[in-house]
Design brief:
alpha/beta, Rossmann fold, binds S-adenosylmethionine
Length: 217
């Protein structure tokens, strides 16, 4: 990693550290009643009902809402929330009052886990926010750590139809400071199909989010 990349990553991490203080409130405003439905949809799609002590990795877990939905649904699960923002992980720790998950700080482009380890790897509403090179590396890392019969679940926003929510959505894109995120959202399944041989697209009932279920075999 060169010096410029370290500076960019450090700036972005700081941005997320500040954002962590009002992230959950922002999500409540942005997604209103859909955020719970969206998380439930992701966890239901994991197909873990018959897996004994499943292992789940939530990449870019933020304040841990998805990680904690997994631990509530499957007590005894081995769940790891992974994010590079100390602030986001601090909030996740506060929310996890019963210590149901492990929270690990690190970059999505380098996952400190062994090959073929997790039953499910998920990444919710975050991949589009990564820079192009990190995003590609993150997808390959997720592929590496998922079991051959496991599933990588990537959830992303659909472009909102509601006018006010569309403004909030575009504001977030602008805060990312690049056209890269907007372009990635428009590319559809292509970036996933470059990495995974099997990609299935589904949508939440409200249609506000899409889920890419990616398999490596
Ligand atoms: C929009 S939030 C999504 C949080 C959570 N997945 C959710 O659905 O609420 C994006 C998260 O990605 C994290 N993130 C961004 N780039 C990252 C990177 N390169 N490595 C690890 N985490 C990253 C941020 O710190 C932030 O917590």
């Amino acid at each position: 990693m060169n010096k410029n990349m370290i500076t960019i990553r450090t700036k972005r991490r700081k941005y997320y550290d500040v954002f962590s203080h009002f992230y959950d409130l922002f999500i409540r405003l942005h997604s209103y009643k859909n955020s719970q439905e969206t998380r439930a949809f992701l966890v239901d799609s994991a197909g873990l009902e018959h897996v004994k002590q499943p292992k789940v990795l939530d990449v870019c877990c933020g304040t841990g809402s998805v990680t904690l939905t997994f631990t509530e649904r499957f007590p005894g699960i081995f769940a790891v929330g992974y994010d590079f923002s100390h602030g986001m992980l601090y909030k996740a720790r506060e929310k996890d009052v019963n210590h149901t998950c492990f929270l690990v700080e690190g970059d999505a482009a380098i996952l400190p886990f062994g090959d073929d380890y997790f039953d499910v790897v998920c990444c919710s509403h975050a991949l589009y926010e990564l820079k192009g090179d990190s995003r590609k590396a993150a997808l390959f890392e997720m592929k590496r750590v998922i079991k051959p019969d496991g599933a990588v679940l990537i959830m992303e926003h659909e472009v909102p139809k509601n006018f006010v929510i569309k403004i909030l959505f575009n504001l977030r894109m602008m805060m990312m400071g690049r056209t890269d995120a907007r372009e990635f959202v428009k590319l559809g399944l292509a970036p996933y199909k470059k990495v995974f041989p099997d990609v299935i697209l589904t949508h939440t009932k409200s249609g506000t989010s899409k889920l890419m279920t990616c398999r490596k075999e």
